[in-house]
Each structure stands twice: as C-alpha cells, then as structure tokens.
Design a protein that fits this description.
The complex is a heterodimer of chains A (about 325) and B (about 325).
Chain A: H1 3-7, H2 17-28, H3 30-60, E1 63-64, E2 71-72, H4 78-83, H5 86-119, H6 124-138, H7 141-152, H8 157-164, H9 168-175, H10 189-213, H11 217-225, H12 230-259, H13 263-266, H14 274-282, H15 288-311
Antiparallel strand pairs in A: 1-2
Chain B: E1 5-14, E2 17-27, E3 32-36, H1 43-51, E4 58-63, E5 66-67, E6 78-81, H2 93-97, H3 99-103, H4 108-121, H5 137-149, E7 155-159, H6 167-184, E8 187-192, H7 195-201, E9 204-209, E10 212-217, H8 219-224, H9 229-234, E11 239-241, H10 243-248, E12 255-258, E13 263-265, E14 271-280, E15 284-291, E16 294-301, E17 312-317, E18 323-326
Parallel strand pairs in B: 3-8, 3-9, 6-7, 7-8
Antiparallel strand pairs in B: 1-2, 1-4, 4-5, 9-10, 11-12, 12-18, 13-17, 14-15, 14-17, 15-16
The chains are: A mainly alpha (about 325), B alpha+beta (about 325).
C-alpha cells in the first residue's frame, strides 16, 4: 500500500512531539496562546513602564529639604507649588506654546504631502513617498540637529542663499523682533521651532496619510455631486474623516516637543524648556521631586488635550 | 425644448484605452433612460461624464441645452446615486439626506424637515437619527436615493444602484424606482449590466460595447429587433445565426437572431437536431440543440413536453420571429 493511500484517511494522525502537542493545545484553546504571547510584553509594560511612571508620580508629591538637599519623603503639594513660580511657569508656557506651534505648522505642511500620497501616489511614487518621509528617520537625530545648526548659523548656507538673493534684510528684520529673534537663527526660538518641525514632521505625515487613505474617494465625489465646493468638501467630509489621523499625528509632534531637551539646548536661546528643566533638576541640582513634577506636566496636558479632542468628536469616525 | 442630456461625438480616453469613443446620445426630458452593457463597455464613464467627475477628451456635452464641459460637478444640477451608496459615515441619516441643502445654506429646521419628507418618500420615516453603519444594504440604497432626490435635480444618475441587493429586494426596488420616477417626473439615467433590469424599467435603452453605443431604442425594439450580433446576444441571450446557418434554415445569407422562446419543438417541422443538454429553470426548461455542429437554444415553457437528452427532435419557428441583421452585423 502506498503512502498516499495511508494518508487518505478522514482524520490524519497527530504530528507528534512537543510542537505537535502544543499546536493542538493552542488550537483547542486559543486563549492559552494569547496568554502565552501577551504575558511577557504586559509584564514589561506593567512593571517597567507603568511602574516607573507611578514611581515618578509618587516622587512629585515629595519635596526637597532646602538645607540638606535630601528628599523628604512626606506627601506634600509644595513641589507643585514651586512649578507655579514665575521662572518655572515661564518654562511651561514657553514649552507648551512651542509644542502647539510646532504641531500646527507640522499639520499644515504635512497635509498636502499626506493627501498626495494617499490619493494620487501609486506604485513607484508610493515607494518614493515612504522613502522620502522615512529616510530622515534613519540617520541619527543628533547628526540632523547639528546639521541644522550649521545651516542656520550666521555663516551658514541659509544666510548665504539669502545674501546672494539680496534678501538678507528679511532675516535681519525677523531676527530684530522680540522673543522670536536673536543674534542669528541658530540661537533664536525661530531656529528651535524650524528644527522641531523638521525633526517631527514624519510623525505627523504618516498617521495623516493612513487616515486619508481610509477615506473612500467616492465620498469626496458624492460631496461634490451634492453641490459642495472643494473647500466645503474639505471642511465637511475630508477633515472630519481624517481627524483621527490628524489627532494621532499631533499627539506625536506635541508630546515629542513637550519632552525634548536636546534640540533647544543645541539650537535656541538660553531660555529653558521643560525637558531641559527636568534634565537639570534630576542631574546637577539633584531635585528629583521638582524634576518629577515637571514631567507630570506634559502627561496632564496630553490628557486634557485628548479629552478635549474626544469631546469635539475627533474620534467619532473611528 | 432641449434634450435632458445631449452627447455629440463625445470621447473619453484614458491613455490608450478608449473608454468612451465618439458617442452620440440624446436623453429626453422626463424619461427613464438605461445604459446597458457589460463591464468595461463605457456606460459608467458616460454617467460620470454627465455628473462631471470626468471631462470629455473630445466632443460636446449639453445638459438641458447648456454646455457642460469644464463645469465642475458642484455646479451641475444633477445628482448621483452611487453604486456603493457613498453615504457619509460620520453623519447620521438625516444629515446625510440634508447635506446638499446644508451646503446651499438652507436653515437647519427647514432642511431637516425636507430630509424627513424625503425619507418618508423612500419608506424610511423616522430613520433620521441612525448612522449609515446601522442600516442594511437596501436601507442604505434608499437613503442614497433620498439624499439625491431631496435636491430636486434636473437629472438623476443611478450607477448600478441595485447591484448589491439580493434578488427579492432588487425586484421590489425596481418597481419602486419606476413608480418614483413616474411620480416625480425627473429624468432618470440608469446604468446597469443586467438586461432584465433595463428591459423592465427603462423607457429607452442604449446598449454599450467597447465604448460605443451599439443600439438605442425602446426595450421592445432592442429585444425584438437587435441591430447587431452583440445586441442580440447580450439582450436576452438570443440565438445568433451565422449567414451560413440562416441559409441552411431557409433564410437569406445574413446574420439573424432567433429568440429561444420563439422556437417550437415537435410536429412535422422540416428541421431536425439532437438534444445535447437540458436545464430546468423553474418557469421554463432550456434545451440546447446540436444542429450539425451549430448550437441552438430553445426555451420551453413549463407544462410542455420536454424531450429526453440525446433524442432527435424536429423544430420550427414562426417566420416573423427570425430577425435578419444584414450580412455584416
């Protein structure tokens, strides 16, 4: 009798071995497989990530003894009170304003790119799009930031181009403005802003593109068919449907800007951002409670932001 | 009075593909006009040319006597019922139906009242607060219809609107659509690949193939007097006889069509053939005959005697049933 005939029974024999037994067990009990697969990452997430976040929250309710410099492990809101001191409040306002502006600018720049990629790019152009958006993410963040320092420096290529075009007065005029100005772009808040937008832009483009791709083309046609101009279609159909993607992208750009401490250190003024304050307080100053309190600020702001977005109906289309 | 829609030598090419190729077309005001053809025959592109989603590569289009080339969809008083309905998922049914009026700035109370009236017309009263995702396919189809009709368009375009519905619902919607069209008097242009649907609903039909109109006429004309082999075959799967076969059956050497239901079996008929297969269709039985290598289909109404497979049968037809299409159809 040939092997083919033996195998032709209605029920095949078990595969044997540990692997075979496991496969059968997992097939009969899919929840077991889920449990085995999810336990390690959940432990990691639960203990290492959420645990340390909780420890951070705990620390923020401690205070530092001003004479000894030791942490006083008693619950107090004193450290949060310190956040409200003008110099610290200043840091928070500056960081949140910067994060908001970076997010808005990223959204405005990202939308046409994401729209093109989602609606028109096919085959090779799609690959070019992904490559173009992702390529900057492959090189080191530090390299890019230092490259921008050179680009924005007084002797840098940007000034050179403006000089050749006899437009230097534009840069000088801008730099003469209060707050956003400075000695050169590389030591101004404008420079910080430009580099933030450059570095975080891919994180806005990708979720936006994914959201726009999910909007069926015939909805745009239906809107136009019912008399809506392109602008009305954008307001009433495209934007509401793409909003979850825009919100997802803005969570990235907003929270990444809120927490970054390297870019404003390399490019910008001596005024500090939240990340720099945390870095300084937990390091040289040894004021862990204040550093922790500063860290809680972005978490709370993001929570409020998401709550507002949900209330505005940003996730209704999900 | 101008026609509702006029095409003069209209072409729409996509690269080398001639989706619509020099089409001439006139749709009368107030008629139910069907564009019938297999997929890829250009009928949907024609519909999109009327809606304004496509611009003609060449030719001239008029809607109620007004030039339509270069006019965007949102400036055409024409509405479309899309094949997959294209309801806005983030709006509820009432807001979907009221969308056109919202865009035109009609006050909220008024447009919602009109929307409810339109929903009543399509037999969905009280469904306004639901989301499209909560509706069945047939209900969505009605909402799409209400959303288009509430704007009182000059022409209503329907792109295979019944394609996704099951048979029973489709037949019901066919009757309702027809009744609605009569009641409203709006010009309907209806795209379908289902010849039965076109025959039963339309006042006139244009049969499309390869981007061209093969024939335009009433359902009766299209069915009884097809002008080409393609029309004869596509509309009602007629027997298409080659000039040689027509001659052998006693006619002139021309292409001809012979409807399966016009052939009778038995009696003292002159012609004889073998039965190669039988299929029971419920209301009739389809018999395939082999006539010296040529196939012939016969439709026997229920209640008539059905020959056995392999049997030799005699057959005949009413001479007026043999429709001649010329030597080069």
């Amino acid at each position: 009798m040939s092997t083919a005939t033996i195998r032709a029974g209605a029920i095949l024999p078990g595969r044997g071995g540990v692997g075979g037994a496991l496969s059968d067990a997992f097939w009969r009990n899919p929840k077991l497989l889920l449990f085995v697969m999810l336990t390690p990452p959940l432990l990691w997430l639960g203990i290492i990530y959420l645990g340390s976040l909780f420890a951070l929250l705990l620390q923020s309710f401690f205070s530092i003894d001003e004479f000894s410099g030791l942490v006083n492990r008693e619950f107090t809101l004193k450290t949060y009170g310190e956040l409200l001191r003008p110099s610290n409040l200043d840091i928070i306002v500056r960081t949140v304003t910067m994060a908001g502006l970076v997010t808005i600018a990223s959204a405005i720049i990202a939308f046409p790119i994401a729209y093109f990629a989602a609606r028109y790019a096919k085959g090779r152009w799609k690959a070019v799009f992904y490559l173009g958006v992702m390529l900057p993410l492959w090189s080191s963040y530090l390299v890019k930031v230092y490259a921008w320092k050179l680009i924005l420096a007084k002797e840098g290529i940007l000034n050179w181009v403006f000089d050749k075009l006899h437009l230097t007065f534009l840069i000088d005029g801008w730099l003469a403005l209060p707050v956003v100005g400075g000695n050169s772009l590389s030591v101004s808040l404008t420079g910080t802003f430009l580099v933030f937008v450059y570095v975080w832009l891919p994180f806005m483009i990708l979720p936006m593109q994914a959201a726009l791709e999910r909007v069926p083309g015939n909805l745009l046609e239906a809107s136009s068919d019912l008399g809506a101009s392109p602008r009305q279609t954008f307001t009433h159909v495209l934007l509401p449907l793409a909003l979850p993607g825009v919100i997802a992208g803005s969570i990235f750009t907003f929270s990444l800007t809120l927490g970054d401490y390297i870019i404003p250190q390399i490019i910008g003024t001596s005024h500090r951002f939240i990340g720099m304050a945390v870095y300084a307080h937990q390091g040289t100053a040894g004021n862990i409670p204040l550093a922790a309190a500063f860290t809680v600020v972005p978490v709370v702001i993001m929570g409020i932001y998401l709550w507002l977005a949900k209330r505005a109906g940003a996730f209704n289309a999900l | 009075m101008p026609h509702a829609v006029t095409f003069q030598k209209v072409s729409r090419h996509f690269g080398n593909v001639r989706a619509v190729d020099a089409v001439d077309l006139e749709v009368e005001v107030g008629e139910f006009f069907a564009m019938l053809g297999p997929s890829g025959s250009g009928k949907t592109t024609c519909l999109r040319l009327i809606a304004g989603f496509e611009q003609p590569t060449a030719g001239h289009i008029e809607i109620f006597g007004e030039t339509a080339e270069g006019v965007p969809p949102y400036r055409r008083n024409v509405n479309t019922v899309f094949q997959d309905y294209a309801l806005f998922p983030h709006l509820n049914v009432a807001d979907n139906v009221a969308y056109g009026q919202m865009i035109r700035g009609v006050a909220k109370a008024e447009r919602l009242r009109d929307a409810e009236a339109a929903l009543e017309m399509v037999k969905l009263p009280g469904y306004g607060s639901r989301k499209p995702g909560q509706l069945s396919g047939g209900q969505r189809q009605r909402v799409a219809l209400a959303r288009a009709l509430v704007n009182k368009p000059k022409v209503l375009l329907l792109d295979e609107p019944l394609g996704a519905l099951d048979l029973k619902l489709r037949e019901q919607m066919q009757e309702e659509l027809k009744a609605l069209q009569r009641a409203l008097g709006i010009t309907f242009v209806f795209v379908t690949h289902d010849q039965g649907e076109a025959l039963s609903m339309a006042d006139r039909i244009a049969v499309f193939d390869h981007g061209k109109i093969m024939q335009t006429g009433t359902p009766e004309e299209i069915y009884r007097r097809p002008k080409t082999r393609f029309v004869a075959d596509f509309v009602g799967s007629s027997n298409v006889l080659s000039p040689d076969l027509t001659r052998r059956l006693g006619g002139p050497a021309e292409w001809a069509s012979l409807r399966p239901e016009d052939i009778r079996l038995g009696g003292e008929a002159r012609h004889e053939a073998q039965v190669t297969s039988l299929s029971f269709l419920g209301s009739a039985t389809r018999v395939t005959l082999d006539l010296a290598g040529e196939k012939l289909t016969v439709l026997l109404p229920a209640g008539t005697d059905v020959p056995a497979q392999g049997a030799s049968v005699r057959f005949s037809w009413d001479p007026s049933a043999l429709h001649l299409m010329g030597p080069q159809a």
